Amino acid sequence: MKMQAAILYQPSDLRVETTEFDDQINADEAIIKVSHTGICGSDLDRILKTGTYSFPTIPGHEFSGEIEKIGDHDTLAVGAPVVVAPMQPCFSCEHCQQGNYGQCLNYKFMGSRNDGAFAQYLKVPLKNIIPFPKYVPLKYGALIEPAAVTLHGLNRIQIQAGDTVAVLGCGTIGLFAIRLAKLLGATQIIAVDLSEEKLETAKKLGATILINSAKVNATEKIKEVTSGVQIAIETAGVPFTQVQTAEITRDHGKILLLGTAHKDVTFPAATFERIIRGEITITGSWNSYSAPFPGQEWQTIIDFIGNGSLDMNEFITHTITLDELPKTIQQMADREFSFNKVLVDLTI
Question: Of 89, 214, 309, 337, whose CB has the highest number of CB atoms within 10 Å?
Fold first, then answer.
């Protein structure tokens, strides 16, 4: 059968074309008719700079849709709304045996190592499918992956009721960190960003102190209003803020690093000494998976959406068509407009 898809032939060569789609499946597979796909920050680099692991490839890994065709499954049926975890672990290496699927040594990943969801249809393993409530707009399902990534990190540092938390960077992951920290019991949440617009969104989601780091020294301001935060969460992926986490964290505090390092990160000797003398714990977090696969993070986010605790409308700033994707990717990379989550609507 034929479908429309955005195909990456090489870095900066993304074309929306009609292509052939193999609709034959095995008993352990399903075909998803894609509804919405989110544009991740990693998509910008992968599409414009680094490329995928082979060419041509269809990018896109944050998506929701309906089952178009299904193999051997007891509870899922054609037409059911679903979300899909994009990682395909080997399930046999030592990390997978321990339930640490994010560290799998031989994984595939939809949208980078194999075809993804900037397309009308996608074939996926049954074990990667999670049912989605019929009473919730299906477009919200395209945000579950980044929300689950964030929750996985917060689970690793174990936020306690009453904690003071600082979130450095109010992009999609940062905003999810603010809202989820609030839901997990943090009482004072400091949002730091360069954008007043994003800080206003952070306030709606639960931030209690807003700091525009373009106008004031964020480290000094945080030290004015706290004795140091118990938890610092870095989501911007910028060396300055990655180092800054250690400057604002109190003794015996915790740092969560969610932002990817695009450059070398160098700690001044005094800051490094703060980590040692303050016995500060630094935790990295990668992806969204735990046992049993794909992990309780996914179902928890779905439950938060279903009960109204997590309003996905607060995160979505733009919706585009598939034809608009190549142009929009470049505009996002060039920061031609302010955005949080941009969705591609595959139903129009």
Answer: 89
For 275, the token pair is 């980590």
Question: Which of 81, 87, 155, 149 shows the shortest CA–CA distance to 306?
Answer: 81
State pLDDT tens for residues 141-191: 999 999 999 999 999 999 999 999 999 999 999 999 999 999 999 999 999
CA 31, CA 10: separation in Å to the nearest integer? Answer: 26
Which amino acid type is present at position 119?
A: A
Per DSSP, the three-state class of 82 is: strand
- DSSP code for 119: B
Q: From the CB of residue 264, how many other CB atoms can be counted at a distance below 10 Å? A: 6
pLDDT digits (tens, 9 = 90+) for 87-139: 999 999 999 999 999 999 999 999 999 999 999 999 999 999 999 999 999 99
**What residues contact 157, with CB distance under 8 A and at least 6 apart?**
231, 254, 256, 281, 283
Alpha helices in 133-214 (DSSP H): 144-157, 172-183, 196-205
Q: 273-309 burial by CB neighbour count: b if 16+ within 10 A, else e?
A: ebbeeeebebeebebbbbeebbbebbebbbebbeeee
State both tokens at 56.
Answer: 């041509």
Q: Three-class SS of residue 169?
A: coil
Distance CA 114, CA 87 (A): 10
Which pTM does this prediction carry?
Answer: 0.96
Count CB atoms within 10 A of the CB of residue 25.
Answer: 17
